[in-house]
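Researcher: Please predict.
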Amino acid sequence: MEQQLGTITTDISLLKDKLHKLADRVRITEKTLTALEPGLADQTSIVSQLRRQVEQLQDHAEDTAGRACWNNMGIVRLPEGTEVPHLTQFVETWLCTVVSMTGLSGLFTVERAHHLPTKRPIPGALLRTIVAKILNCRDQLLRAAREKAPLIVEGPQVSLFKITP
């Protein structure tokens, strides 16, 4: 019986040692967590600020992308090759001559113009669309083109339209 009691006493003392070591680890962990809690609150507020900032930047990026094509206008069925050598200058000159410019702003400018990126059409096929960024009076140009319709250049009827985001 004494031998069993000695074994039990040894087991209990081993368990006490393990329990003390575990209690020490719990105390150290609690101290560490207590030390980290204020920083965690700061990090939480920083993360929420960053989320708000990301949302604002996404809204701004969407708005900027929408505004980038705000003044874009499409021109369809303009005969291929009539725009040589500079498409931007050609579109500006063509719009001034074909569409009556009465009442339009003197600041009317074609900032840039390009064909949609497709292959050059074969003779007799549909022509590529031109996209032009018009500064200051795109809607007035479209209204004047509508009033002057049909716009005919070397055969086909040319159409102008608003490109919206």
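Model: The longest strand covers residues 109-115.
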